[in-house]
Design goal:
The protein is mainly β. The protein is 0% helix and 53% strand. It contains no helices and eleven strands. The strands form two sheets. Strands 2, 4, 5, 6, 9, 10 and 11 form a seven-stranded mixed sheet that branches. The protein has a four-stranded antiparallel sheet with strand order 1-3-8-7, with no helix packed on it. The protein is elongated, with a radius of gyration of 14 Å. It starts with a strand and ends with a strand.
Amino acid sequence: QVQLVESGGGLVQSGGSLRLSCAASLPDFSFFGLYDTGWYRQAPGKQRVLVAEVSSVGTTNYADSVKGRFTISRDNAKKTVYLQMNSLKPEDTAVYYCHATQIRTSYNYWGQGTQVTVSS
């Protein structure tokens, strides 16, 4: 069973930075490099939306609202995905979720979420 555990959320002032981490626990003999991964966020009363994603081959994609401020990266050896968030704005306040898709089976997995709050 795949488990994703996020960390690094918290309270930060506008203009500040945070780095989120998502550590994956995989079944024996599974290779993290066979997963597309990404970060989503959900603000109160709103739908969950894509923030950034990095594919199994390293291709990245960002929501327009975070381009130039957020950077997604992954370390397959550590089975971890990162989201570096700079120049944070109050509208970035949300619960951030890690997501992974096994590229051969298309099975999807979600973390439990980590709260990010940006004060003005």
